[in-house]
């Protein structure tokens, strides 16, 4: 028998166990369902089956298990089988089952479905851009586009989907990593718009083992700024990041306009920066492209061989294509089939027993 893969320790999630157990975050009818069962002394043994109608890559499985372990009223009486975070799922495929006395976990449906939906959306969207960019690296940079409380779980969902880095320590906390980043526009402005000076200050004051990547679009001259930073920092410069707004045309592109959309970070701009760096002997300086990158834009860049070394992707990872809602149905009661019309038990040999 193959060795089971490891799951995250439930304590990693820092769940508000008391409030979750009390139904504070649950749809009221689930909380009242448990109250009715307990008050009536009705303790059916049910099989709850969880699935989504979409193809995707699972996220939130270990978090959902943690909710069941810590917030049910008798984990030891439940039998849970599940896929793993990062696993591919097919439409209607059973991704988790819960068997046991219903009054022990009836109040938790809102919670475990919610984390599966949220994290699977992030995981699937991240996997799609990772696949489009292969073998290039993708960095997960959407923290500023949503509430800070979602960072930890979203970062882990992106990690299991193949993102090589996240931008905050919170996003990396569940696997013991740390955030990565670049010399930002804010510190360039704080040094009077002098990108070279800001980059030098970064180099002087951050650890030597931190990869120094500098944003180079502050003055809308990515070629000139990239060369200036490379000349000043030499081997200390790991890479430059192109992040030109989609409403601007970089100064190096103006004379080349006419046959392509010149706005934002476009293929010609990347080539201009790559050629300029190579001409001065800076072949080792990587180019990171960010700003409005989606699956389709990355795929277009890769199909035409644009010399990007890695992509920073932000808000599109919270949107993407498809819906990742999950449904939970009771499909057996006291060992006998019992499901609403149109639903039935769908066994899945891929599910593994949760210890």
Share in β-strands? 15-25%
Separation of the first and last Cα atoms: 16 Å
Low-confidence stretches: none
Q: And the CATH topology of the largest domain?
A: TIM Barrel
CATH-level-2 architecture of the largest domain = Alpha-Beta Barrel
Give the strand tally.
Answer: 14
Tell me the Rg in angstroms: 25 Å
Q: Order of strands in the sheet with the most strands?
A: 13-12-1-5-3-14
* Class by SSE composition: alpha/beta
* Count of folded domains: 2
Question: How would you characterize the overall build of this protein?
Answer:
It contains eleven helices and 14 strands. It has helices spanning 17-21, 28-40, 61-71, 109-133, 151-161, 169-172, 185-190, 195-205, 222-233, 267-279, 295-303, and strands spanning 45-52, 56-57, 79-82, 88-89, 94-101, 137-140, 165-166, 212-215, 237-242, 286-290, 310-313, 326-333, 336-337, 352-353. A six-stranded antiparallel sheet has the order 13-12-1-5-3-14. β6 (137-140), α5 (151-161) and β7 (165-166) form a beta-alpha-beta unit. The radius of gyration is 25 Å and the shape is elongated. The protein starts with 16 loop residues before the first helix and ends with a strand. The model has no long low-confidence stretch (mean pLDDT 94).
């Amino acid at each position: 028998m193959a060795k089971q893969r490891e799951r995250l320790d439930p304590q990693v999630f820092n769940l508000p166990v008391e409030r979750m157990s009390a139904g504070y975050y649950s749809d009221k009818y689930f909380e009242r369902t448990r109250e009715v069962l307990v008050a009536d002394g009705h303790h059916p043994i049910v099989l709850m089956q969880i699935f989504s109608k979409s193809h995707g890559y699972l996220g939130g499985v270990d978090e959902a298990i943690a909710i069941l372990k810590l917030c049910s009223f008798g984990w030891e009486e439940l039998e849970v089988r599940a896929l793993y975070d990062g696993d591919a799922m097919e439409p209607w495929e059973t991704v988790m089952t819960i068997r046991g006395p219903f009054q022990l976990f009836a109040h938790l449906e809102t919670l475990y479905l919610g984390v599966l939906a949220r994290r699977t959306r992030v995981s699937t969207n991240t996997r799609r851009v990772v696949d489009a960019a292969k073998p290039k690296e993708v960095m997960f940079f959407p923290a500023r586009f949503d509430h800070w409380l979602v960072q930890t779980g979203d970062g882990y969902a992106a990690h299991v989907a193949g993102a090589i880095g996240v931008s905050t320590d919170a996003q990396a906390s569940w696997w013991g990593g740390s955030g990565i980043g670049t010399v930002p526009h804010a510190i360039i402005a704080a040094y009077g718009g002098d990108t070279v000076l800001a980059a030098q200050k970064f180099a002087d004051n951050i650890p030597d083992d931190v990869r120094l990547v500098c944003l180079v679009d502050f003055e809308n001259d990515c070629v000139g700024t990239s060369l200036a930073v490379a000349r000043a920092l030499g081997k200390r410069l790991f890479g430059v990041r192109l992040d030109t707004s989609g409403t601007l045309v970089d100064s190096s592109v103006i004379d080349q306009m006419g046959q392509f959309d010149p706005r934002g970070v476009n293929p010609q701009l990347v080539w201009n920066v790559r050629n300029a760096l190579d001409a001065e002997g800076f072949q080792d300086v990587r180019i990171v492209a960010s700003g409005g990158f989606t699956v389709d834009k990355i795929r277009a860049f890769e199909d035409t061989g644009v010399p990007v070394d890695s992509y920073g992707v932000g808000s599109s990872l919270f949107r993407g294509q498809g819906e990742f809602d999950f449904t939970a149905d009771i499909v057996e009661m006291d060992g006998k089939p019992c499901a609403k019309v149109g639903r039935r038990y769908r066994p899945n040999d891929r599910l593994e027993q949760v210890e």
